[in-house]
Structures are given as structure tokens and as C-alpha cells.
Specification:
Layout (H helix, E strand, L loop, with lengths): L1 H4 L2 H14 L2 H21 L1 H11 L10 H12 L5 H51 L2 H4 L4 H42 L1 H48 L1 H6 L3 H50 L5 H46 L13
Helix pairs in contact: 3-6, 3-8, 4-6, 4-12, 6-8, 6-12, 8-9, 8-12, 9-11, 9-12, 11-12
């Protein structure tokens, strides 16, 4: 992860994205933060809800005397909800209100996120096309058509996926931090145990980011080769047919397509394998947390249930962050190719341009 964060290409990519979205990035960040806070408040409300249900049914036998639980019940009493049944109804109404409000916030967040991603990609593609149209012929004439076509289509499509994953990673990061703060407030000791597991998992998953970067470079190279073969075949189609050489083009095209598909499959295999391994080991960690909470730290049952919910949700954003870094690492070679071509076009000396060129 640290290697990716120090990447000059990543810095250039993020700078390009933020320069384009401007103040809308702040609005998106606030919506992401609001969604995370509403999610956290809803989880915390589970604690008094479980205690109140136990008061309605004495056979449950849950101890409600922890400081946090009692504070929440005091707040309910302070707003006029003194009877257990009215407090239960009040908490249910709060749940519904939070769900509706959170749904509205997430709706606005996802719409803005999609809008920013799509418009950024369109601007990226248009900027490249403008650079091509403005560059002098002495520069454009030396470009390989297949390379340009691959950048404008495939590479920019991968940049689009990277933009979406960067936003998703940011969302996951804020949710992860919100869950982490809640977990620390509820039980510092149990949270440290889970954090130790996550730190080990991050170290084990780190090599996959380097693999993703290498697979991204392979995908750029092989994708360009596919366009190269296609361009050569179309430009020499008449000659190829006259000498019965179509099969050679087909064979080369098929080899490149298969190699490109294998790179994509290897990348998917890495992500799926990491996800399954992490989720499986996560169940073991949560089981250990439950045992330690019950028999070692003597954590009250309502708090422990809330922690289980938080820890089960904590793993999702953590894994999403890790896989976002993998996907961004796989995308960076595409952006590096795009940036290199764009700079060469935009910085080409205009005085060499042939004004009266006719194709």
C-alpha cells in the first residue's frame, strides 16, 4: 500500500481528478461522512434496544448497568420516554428515521459519485482528442495509430474504473474509521485484538498490489498489441487476402486476445482468493472476540452484540480498501501511458506544424 501511495503516477492521477471535480469533492466527502455517521448511530442504538427488550422479557436476563447503556436510557427518559414500552417505540422510530435519512444521503452520494466519475472520464477522453487535433503534423505523423486508439478506448476505460474504485475506496475508508471509533469507545481491548488481525492481513495482502501493477502493465501491452494486429489487418486486408495470409493475422490476434484474457483472469483470481481467505479467517477472529468478551473482559452482552455487528461490518470496508488499492495499482499503467501521450502532444512545438497539409 505504501508503495502505491508514493507512486508519482498516482499523485498525478489524483491531482488531475481533484483539479477537475473542484469543490464538488468536498460535497462528496461530506455526504460520505454523513452516511458513515448515520450508520454508526444506528449500530449504537442497538445497545439500548437490546436492553429494553430484555426489560420487557425478564427471562432474557441481560445486565443493563454499563455506563454507556445507562447514559442512553437516561437520554430517552430526559425526552419524556420513561416507560419501557415507550422507550422501545422511541428507539424503533429513531431506527426508521435514521434508515430513511441514511437512504437519502446514500442516494445523493451515489448519484454525485457516478456523475463525477463519468464526467471526469469524458473530460479525459475529450482532452486527449483535442490534444491530437491541436498537435503539429510532425508530431502526430510519428504516432502509431494502434497506440492512440488503445489509449482513447481501452486505457481511458480502465481509468474510468480506477476513478470509480478510488471513490469507493474513500467511502470504505471513512466507514472503516467510523466503525473503528465506535468499537474503541465500546471496548478498547477487543478492538486492539481485531486491529492486530487487520494489520497482519494488510501485510499479507501487500504483495498482491505489486502483482496488480505488473498485471496492469501486461494488460496495457497486450491490449495495444491487439489493436496493432487489427490495424495492420484492416490496412493490408486486400493484400492479405490476395496471398491467403489471413490466417496469420487471425492466429496472432487470437494469441494476443488469449494472453490478455489470462492477465485479466489472474487479476480476478488474486482478488477472489484474497477475499475468501480474509473472510474465512475473519470468522475465526470474531469467534475469538466473542469468547474473550464473554469470559475474559466480561463485556456486557448488549455491548458485545453491538461489537459483533461493528466488527462484521468493519471487515467489509477494510477488504474494499485493500482491493481498491489493487485495482488502482492495476489501472496506473494505463494512466501513465495516457499521461505520457498527452504530454508529448500538448508540449509539441507548434512552429513545426505544417499549416497547408492535405491528407
Amino acid at each position: 500500500m505504501l508503495v502505491i501511495l508514493r507512486s508519482r503516477t498516482l499523485h498525478a492521477y489524483v491531482r488531475n481528478f481533484l483539479d477537475y471535480v473542484g469543490w464538488r469533492a468536498l460535497v462528496l466527502a461530506l455526504l460520505i461522512l454523513a452516511g458513515a455517521l448515520l450508520e454508526g448511530i444506528g449500530i449504537v442504538l442497538l445497545i439500548p434496544f437490546i436492553v429494553l427488550l430484555s426489560d420487557l422479557d425478564a427471562s432474557v436476563g441481560i445486565d443493563a448497568k454499563s455506563k454507556m447503556t445507562q447514559s442512553m436510557l437516561d437520554i430517552l427518559a430526559a425526552v419524556g420516554l420513561e416507560q419501557t414500552i415507550t422507550q422501545v417505540i422511541g428507539v424503533l422510530i429513531a431506527f426508521v428515521f435514521l434508515a430513511v435519512l441514511r437512504g437519502f444521503v446514500l442516494w445523493q452520494r451515489d448519484i454525485l459519485s457516478a456523475s463525477l466519475t463519468l464526467s471526469f472520464v469524458d473530460q479525459t477522453r475529450i482532452r486527449m482528442f483535442r490534444a491530437l487535433s491541436s498537435a503539429p503534423w510532425s508530431t502526430v505523423s510519428y504516432l502509431r495509430h494502434a497506440a492512440v486508439q488503445h489509449v482513447i478506448t481501452s486505457d481511458i476505460s480502465r481509468i474510468s474504473a480506477g476513478s470509480e474504485l478510488m471513490i469507493r475506496g474513500s467511502i470504505s475508508l471513512l466507514f472503516f474509521l467510523a466503525y473503528l471509533v465506535l468499537a474503541i469507545v465500546l471496548s478498547f481491548k477487543l478492538t486492539i485484538l481485531v486491529l492486530a488481525f487487520l494489520a497482519i492481513a494488510a501485510l499479507l495482502l501487500r504483495p498482491l498490489q505489486s502483482r496488480a501493477r505488473k498485471l496492469g502493465e501486461d494488460m496495457s501491452r497486450l491490449g495495444e498489441s491487439v489493436y496493432e494486429v487489427l490495424g495492420s489487418f484492416m490496412s493490408g486486408l486486400k493484400l492479405a487476402k490476395s496471398i491467403n495470409a489471413e490466417g496469420q493475422f487471425v492466429d496472432e490476434f487470437e494469441r494476443n486476445v488469449k494472453a490478455l484474457r489470462q492477465s485479466q483472469i489472474r487479476f480476478s483470481r488474486d482478488q477472489v482468493g484474497a477475499r475468501i481467505l480474509f473472510q474465512t479467517s475473519g470468522y475465526l477472529v470474531v469467534s475469538c472476540v466473542v469468547a474473550i468478551g464473554l469470559f475474559v473482559t466480561q463485556t456486557p452482552l448488549p455491548v458485545l452484540i453491538a461489537l459483533i455487528v461493528i466488527f462484521s461490518r468493519l471487515s467489509g470496508p477494510f477488504l474494499a480498501i485493500q482491493q481498491s488499492f489493487q485495482s488502482i495499482a492495476q489501472m496506473l499503467p494505463a494512466f501513465a501511458t495516457y499521461e505520457s501521450l498527452l504530454v508529448s502532444l500538448e508540449q509539441a512545438p507548434n512552429e513545426i506544424e505544417l499549416q497547408d497539409y492535405r491528407h
